[in-house]
Amino acid sequence: MSDVVIFGILWIVFSVLGELGAKAWVDSAPQGSGPYFGVASNVGLVGVHAFDFLVWVALPIFVFVALMIVFSMVRFHVRKDSPATGDAPAQFRNNKAFVGIWVVASILINVLIWLHPNASGLETVFAAQAPQNNPNALVVDVTARQWEWIFSYPQYHITQSLNAAGQDVLYLPVNRPVKFVLRSYDPFHAYDYQIAVIHGFWIPAFGIKLDVVPGETRQLYLTPTKLTSTEQNPMTRVQCSEVCGPGHPYMEANVHVVTAAQFAAWVKGQQAAGN
User: Fold this and answer.
1) Of 130, 181, 212, 218, which sits most exposed with the smallest number of CB within 10 A?
2) Main-chain dihedrals φ then ψ at residue 33, nearest 5 degrees
3) Closest by alpha carbon to 218, among 88, 105, 129?
4) Residue 53 to residues 24, 56, 72: CA-CA distances in angstroms?
5) Is there a contact between 25 and 36 (Cβ–Cβ < 8 Å)?
6) Which of the 8 DSSP states describes residue 234?
7) What is the dihedral of CA 101, 103, 106, 112, to 10 degrees?
8) Which structural domains are found in the chain, ordered by start?
9) Residues 143 and 185 sit within 8 Å (Cβ to Cβ)
10) Are the C-beta atoms of residues 224 and 139 closer than 8 Å to each other?
11) Burial letters for 99-115: b for 16+ Cβ neighbours within 10 Å, e otherwise?
12) Residue 32 pLDDT > 50
């Protein structure tokens, strides 16, 4: 029984140290490093919270298994030159109580993870896609063509947002819901959805992506939660996530998440430029 008590104490101590160490690592890691690549949207935060919870659950399990191996090696190690002491008075091929507890605990942990963060996280993501939960949403029409992303802002009469170099660029105000309207076609050539290809609208820092299918109009809601840009964090970019031809690796666009005042100034600049 003393071995069980000692093992239990060690398990608790190392589990607590592991939890504190993981939390310190996450909290001290600058944006773009550590376990995360920098999350900048309400949908992405759902994944962050799920990761945190899984680490919180997995660390004690990992410590238990690793400690069991090391503890058994140290506690029950017998040197070759040790005098023979004979067999232990009690021999066990298995321990029904241990097996039963392990099986029941495994089932409960799997059910817990299925309920949270899986089911609860999906419910949060689904709720974030409801129009009634996104008041005053900024509408951004996204057109995917081989091999370019075109962004327009119908509320501000901007037909194609471009930077000073004439490149497509996506500007979003922080903490304002955004409604992306996604289509796959080529507005500069005769359109035939039967010969168009599927693209994937993906902003890694926003933690979500959605296929853009020819002949369909798809919608995606999210809210940027952090001031950032492609220059600050390369994961804050629009990238095609579906292999769509030889230009696929270069089908990307810069993203800027700015303040409301900066966004208003940018809109005026786009309108003045006649975009």
Assistant:
1) 130
2) -135, -170
3) 129
4) 15, 5, 29
5) no
6) T
7) -80
8) 2-75+97-128 (no CATH), 136-272 (2.60.40.420)
9) yes
10) no
11) eeeeeeeeeeeeeebee
12) no
Contact 153, 138 (CB under 8 A): yes
Q: Cis (ω within 30 of 0) for the bond into 117?
A: yes
The burial class, CB within 10 Å (0-12 / 13-18 / 19+), for 246 is: exposed
DSSP E strands, the chain: 138-145, 148-152, 169-173, 178-184, 199-203, 208-212, 218-222, 228-229, 237-240, 252-258
Percent of the chain with pLDDT over 90: 59
Each residue's pLDDT tens digit, 142-181: 999 988 999 999 999 999 999 999 999 999 999 999 999 9
Residue 34 banded pLDDT, cuts 50, 70, 90: low
For residue 257, count other CB atoms closer than 10 A to its CB: 27
Lowest mean pLDDT among 19-28, 32-41, 50-59, 200-209: 32-41
Cβ-contact 253, 170 below 8 angstroms: yes
pLDDT (tens digit per residue) in 187-241: 877 666 566 789 999 999 998 899 999 989 999 999 999 999 999 888 899 999 9
In the structure encoding, which two tokens stand for residue 104, read together?
């029941």
**Is residue 44 predicted with pLDDT exceeding 70?**
yes
The rounded radius of gyration (Å) of the Cα atoms in the chain is 27
Residue 274 pLDDT exceeds 60: yes
Beta carbons of 44 and 99 less than 8 angstroms apart: no
pTM of the prediction? 0.80
CB atoms within 10 A of CB 13: 12
